[in-house]
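Before the break, one more example. Copy the sequence into your notebook; we will annotate it together after we see the structure.
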Amino acid sequence: MNLIHIDYKDKIAYSEEKANKIALGEGAHSRTTLWCLKPGQHIHAHVHAGDHIWIVLEGKGRYLCDGEPLPIAPGRVLIIPAGLSHGVENSGSEGLVFASISAG
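Here is what the structure looks like once it is written out:
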């Protein structure tokens, strides 16, 4: 597999209906996607069999889990082990953009 080199800002795209998932690349052992959420949009808390890493690039929101929601903003890195409930909501006034790297 060859190196994939992307400027995420060229890939940002929002959907009026729901959080928008944009595939950036897939390898033999991982997938990388870009999530774009307009204010008020969310991804329900859910569980996966593989690990996830989320890197917040733009906007503000709340990480949703089994406990108290965690505020998130650019620069925040979330390492989510397999089996841990996770979701997100854009609680800010601008778009929320994060990269998601998942095992798979």
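Residues 29-103 form a domain with the Jelly Rolls fold (CATH 2.60.120.10). The chain has a mean pLDDT of 94. Try to locate both features in your own notes.
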